[in-house]
């Protein structure tokens, strides 16, 4: 019997924005990449230029979509927008500095830091609902594509959710995952079983001589 074809699944977080550096909650706010973010996207495109992409999907928000389009450019492939890959909806916290939120909503902020799995953002999503949304989109993409090299470009929280799911771990484990801007994670997927090849790889960004940022 012939071996089942495999999929190479590549997860990429979008490049840096000024709001990342300023510790401002982004969510569904359509923040653009800054100059560093553009450089990160281009370095990621260069690292992946010799791959043959079957498809590339992205959140429709500019910071993700521009990252994806710059990665897709050498391959002359159209980026497919997918709402399931949207960032977490932080509700009324969107556009606000972390320090302001800590001051105005101390109990909610403490819950977010200490027990993020129990968090429901004021006027926004719960982490549980976002987990279901993101991984439902992931499963649909895996089913639709089946084989080849598939690239998903998204945001900090969705990448955490998808990585946790692909590692075969439960919702409670997502806070342990770290994925830096424009880092690359690669999974081999075969018969609905995923195997990590590399996680949060930033070697291709070393030439930019960037100062490591906190997970925000």
Descriptive labels:
6 strands; alpha/beta; 216 residues; six-stranded mixed β-sheet
Structure notes:
This protein has 216 residues and is α/β, with parallel strands linked by helices. It has one domain: Phosphoglycerate mutase-like (Rossmann fold, 3-Layer(aba) Sandwich), CATH 3.40.50.1240. It has a six-stranded mixed sheet with strand order 3-2-4-1-5-6, with helices on both faces. α4 crosses α5 and α6 packs across α7. The termini are far apart.
Number of domains: 1
Strand content: 15-25%
Q: Which CATH-level-2 architecture?
A: 3-Layer(aba) Sandwich
For the sheet with most strands, the description reads: 6 strands, mixed
| Low-confidence region ranges | none
**Can you give the helix content as a percent range?**
25-40%
* CA radius of gyration: 17 Å
Task: Specify the structural class.
Answer: alpha/beta
Let me know the CATH homologous superfamily: Phosphoglycerate mutase-like
Globally, the shape reads globular
Instruction: Write down the overall mean pLDDT.
Output: 95
Strand order of the largest sheet: 3-2-4-1-5-6
N- to C-terminal distance: 47 Å
Oligomer status: single chain
Number of strands: 6
Number of helices: 7
Give me the strand/helix succession: EHHEHEHHHEHEE
Stated plainly, the CATH topology is called Rossmann fold
């Amino acid at each position: 019997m012939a071996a089942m074809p495999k999929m190479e699944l590549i997860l990429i977080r979008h490049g840096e924005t000024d709001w990342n550096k300023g510790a401002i909650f982004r969510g569904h706010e359509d923040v653009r990449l800054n100059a560093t973010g553009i450089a990160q996207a281009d370095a990621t495109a260069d690292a992946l230029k010799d791959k043959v992409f079957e498809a590339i999907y992205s959140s429709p928000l500019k910071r993700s979509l521009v990252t994806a389009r710059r990665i897709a450019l050498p391959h002359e492939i159209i980026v497919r927008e997918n709402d399931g890959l949207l960032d977490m909806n932080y509700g009324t916290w969107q556009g606000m500095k972390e320090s302001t939120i800590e001051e105005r909503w101390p109990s909610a902020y403490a819950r977010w830091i200490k027990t993020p799995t129990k968090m429901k953002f004021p006027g926004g999503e719960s982490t549980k609902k976002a987990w279901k949304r993101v991984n439902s989109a992931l499963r649909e993409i895996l089913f639709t594509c089946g084989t080849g090299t598939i690239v998903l470009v998204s945001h900090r929280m969705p990448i955490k959710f998808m990585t946790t799911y692909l590692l075969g771990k439960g919702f409670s484990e997502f806070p342990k995952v770290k994925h830096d801007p424009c880092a690359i994670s690669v999974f081999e997927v075969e018969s609905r079983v995923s195997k990590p090849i590399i996680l949060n790889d930033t070697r291709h960004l070393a030439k930019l001589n960037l100062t490591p940022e906190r997970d925000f």
